[in-house]
Amino acid sequence: MEEPGSGPPSLFALSGAAVSSSMGALESEVWALPAHILHGLLPLLNVYYLERAEDAAASKGRSFGNRRYYLQQLQSRRSIPSLCQRLSTQPIWRKLWNDVMKTRPPKSEHITCWRKKFLETFFSNILHGVLDVSSDQRLNDDRFSPLLHSSQHVTQLTILNMLQGVTELTAERNRRVVENLAGCLKTLKFRHLLSSDLSIRHSLSLLLHRLIHHGAVNQVSVYSWPVPDTVLLVLILSMSAGFWHPSKTLMHHCGPCSLCRKEPDSQTQKSTQDDLVDSKHLCHGHTEKLEMGQHGSHESSSIKIQNASTKVPAEANPDPKASTELKGSSGSKTPMLYGLRNHPLRNRVRHDVSCTMPPEQYNAERESSSPSERSSAGPALRTPHKKLKCSSRRKRRSPRRNWGLCADPEDLYDFVFTVAREAATETLNESVHERENLDSLASTPADRLSCESLGCMGRGGSSGILSLKAAAPFRSIATLELFSVPLTGDACRTLGNLLSSWTSLESLVLSYNGLGANIFCILSGLRALSHHNDRRLRVVRVSDVFSHVPSVELVHCILSAFPWLRTLSVSFDLKHHLEGSRPEGSLSSLEEIPESCLEQLEIRFPREPLQTALLLPVLKASRSLQQLSLDSAALPCPQEFGLLLQALKERNPDLKKLSFHDVNLADHQEEVLLLLQDPILQEITFSFCRLFESSTAEFLSEIINVVKRNSSLKSLKLPGNRLGNHRLVALADIFSEDSSSSICQLDVSSNCIKPDGLLEFTKKLESHLLQRGERAKFTHLRLFQNWLDQDVATAQEALQRLRAVCSVVAC
């Protein structure tokens, strides 16, 4: 295309403009044109035909957008024409991005397909109303539907603020858009959400049901929600876990969706039978035994249902009207979809701290209930076992709700957070004893709760949050991430309940959620989940400002429950100073850790001692460990640090990466040298470790000599250790001609390096690399946050010469 002001347009440009304006009639002939003509014509096409050009190329066995694929096809025919490079549409999509989006995308150097990147961002901007298609003629075409045509390229979608776009997507006119998203969308993100009304939640429920339960979404991430709407948060969490109760989230009862109606009748019949049995068990306090597979001997203890809440279990009294609609809908039955009477959360008992009420108040409320309310249960729920009749007469039945067609926001708790009202006991003495324990737990302050008091530590399961008996009725996601979303006690208990049966969950990230003592609810849910034979959880990351329990104890607790984890990260900024000292019994009776599959372990200590005695069993059990990171730990004495290094050498033969950040190693020079000469480690990081705070010049020479003899070490990272100019210049000797070092990456960020010192280092490095020739493997140098602005000219000269021999990151 001719640039503006470069003279009159060429005949080709005029012809191309005429062809592009008549593509509706000439499209098939255009795709048959020779490659060199198509190359000049493609930039003149609008988005609609540029997109169709890719489809046309694919149908002919060639690809404009994927140059690598095209090259492979041509090479297989042993013919590589010089025009193959010019057939790529990547530069066209990249230029379209620059002209329309007018921003530089993050990590643009890693973008492999600008077509997908443009159309995915284009979809999001159109949906949120921040892009007008009339702003550029290349975005206009009568047959081009912005949402429909770009939706098939969307793998990640972000929903913002007041859930803009949710109502638009669930409109009937965009049904095909949602169908496209259900097939290709993998990640759903919520960012900066605000409160929402019932109509928005109605639309969000329908959207999540299609994208998660009947779609391909595998990850849900929630970011930056300072004051979360609890009802909305519970809705997102529960539907992500595969649980949905439409009668409580939708504005009107609309029957099962078309995909739900396709479920086999056999599953429907089985679900109905299971539902009937479970409803009887819940209503009459039937003592159930949990089946935990390999933990059967521990999990087969009977579960007593206690009246630990002021809320009536929503699912104990299914709506007869809804039941009639379900059975008669479309002449077929639907699996446990709407009533969720087979909801596994209903089959679990929990000791709810904040929701426990005194027995006197509880009995008074039940006495005030009307006879009609007490008899409102369905037929299946009004047939008690004769064995339990005498005990059930001692208490009058609690009032039961009849759910209307319009959802009450508070009903979501009754759906997700089901607590039984009546005590089911085998003997009166056991009932009295358990009630005393419950009352004692209710009177315990939140900051005094421990994992034991909530039942987290029992090998046979959790009395605080028991494992769910049945699988989730809908498909659930594999990755859940909550960043900067404060979680209240109720929200933590709800999440714990969901986690206890979330068998599809593979990665859980909880970052700065203000958990405090409520972290035990999460641990209890994870422990219950660990008893499922089909659990898939492999990654757990927990970070927060204040730690309620010591970091290593938390690692010990999680790993003892989940030895199948591959990655475990625990990070806290500050230690929570409780009145007195530490919580009584908080993770005090730590279990032995079985042999684990852990490959990556990251611990950030809130200025706590290293707790070597607790860390050593973790390392001993993790023989597959490949990466270890210790951050902000206080080393009590050199002997304990030596024990740690000895354990790493003996117990972790596969350890490849070791990182210390903000750990004072000034008095541990001997241990530092031992690490640098380890023949197994490939990457070592000493970040802000004060290595040279009290050292002599001989220490630096020893470091250089050790690294020169170590051929297994590939990466050495020394940020924040005050190297200065003279130590940086000395480090260049690592690459001398007599060196056996295989160092590829060197990080000297934040080391008070000035331009003249960098230039001297550069000259010395150039000389060494030239002498070593092909034996030199140095490729990356990081220079973040140094004093290079003191002499810009010298710094630029040094950087220019460095970039000739390696990749440099200095911004």
From TrEMBL:
Residues 299-310 have a biased composition (Polar residues). Gene3D superfamilies: Ribonuclease Inhibitor. Residues 383-400 have a biased composition (Basic residues). Residues 291-339, 361-401 are annotated as: Disordered. InterPro entries: Leu_rpt_41 (IPR026137), LRR_dom_sf (IPR032675). It comes from the Eukaryota. GO terms for cellular component: cytoplasm; nucleus. One of its GO terms (molecular function) is identical protein binding. Keywords: Leucine-rich repeat, Phosphoprotein, Repeat, Ubl conjugation pathway. This is Leucine-rich repeat-containing protein 41. It comes from Crocodylus porosus (Saltwater crocodile).
